[in-house]
Amino acid sequence: MARLTMLPESSGDGYASAAAIALVIADSPEAAAEALEALELAGGKARKPVSFAEASADLSNYDGLDLILIEAAGAPEALLDIVLARVDTMARERSLGVVATVLPEQIDVAAAQLLGPHSQILCRPARAERISAIAAARWHARGVMDDVNREAESVRLRRLSEEVARIAETLARLTRSEDSEPRAGVRDRGSGYRGPEAGPPVEIAAAEIRAVIRARRMRAQFFADELFADPAWDMLLDLFAAQLERRQVSVSSLCIAAAVPPTTALRWIGTLHDAGLFERQADPADRRRAYIGLSPKGIEGMRSYASAVKRAGLPLV
């Protein structure tokens, strides 16, 4: 079988062809083997894998690393928390890439501890997703910011933002023409969202947003899920409803609301956070849990959109 090459080779300065060195932390031999295989296919090399007990005792002696790969399956809960915290500190101090593969019940712990800019969380990833994440982490570690998957999602996010802006602007014009009165528009110059401002505030109930979410989920009874996969909008709706209900949403719950595989949802959470629409909210009662909520920019965008739609007498979708 031909070797899969994820990164370009170079005969020039050796920059691209130099193998990234990774430390693999795993208690499960099977998970460690998967990580090592993906690392090799992504053009990297590994030190001898270490257990969570070894990693929790000391990580300071591991020099010359580019990446840290964590396989959380089978890890003791107490040690997982310690290792994630130490890896995050080490990665940020040394500008290392981190790829953590976790089980669904470990998502919230990983999201609460891995705060570095080059940390990626995977949940039951496919082989290609592992390789892609490691390749992206390797490039980040080398200072090359060219994550193709994230770039593609950023383009899609911008298109979503532009579409919302166009819809709101059209609804604003319709509202003005129906009332035969000029109405001032509101523009968030930072986010690009627009919506009509005139008149009293439009009341938006959480039940209305929940009804939209239920209707969107019902499509899966009649059509294949992938036909309507739209994790960014599904998560925005879920967080908007939660904000109206004054309820906090965990990272794992938001992944479920996205209605896509967990690794895809986690990648989108990162994209929307980078876009300034999501914000991380710590749980003061439990440092092992992190919540995700809409940022002020995200709240304004969702309120403006919902208000524009209701003023025009159209259903929320």
From TrEMBL:
Please list the residue ranges annotated as the HTH marR-type domain. Answer: 245-298
Q: Which InterPro entries match?
A: HTH_MarR-typ, WH-like_DNA-bd_sf, WH_DNA-bd_sf
From the Swiss-Prot or TrEMBL record, give the protein name. Answer: HTH marR-type domain-containing protein
Q: Where is the composition biased (Basic and acidic residues)?
A: 175-191
In this chain, the stretch annotated as Disordered covers: 175-199
- GO MF terms on file? DNA-binding transcription factor activity
Query: Can you tell me which residues the record assigns to a coiled coil?
Result: none
- One Pfam family assigned to this protein is HTH_27
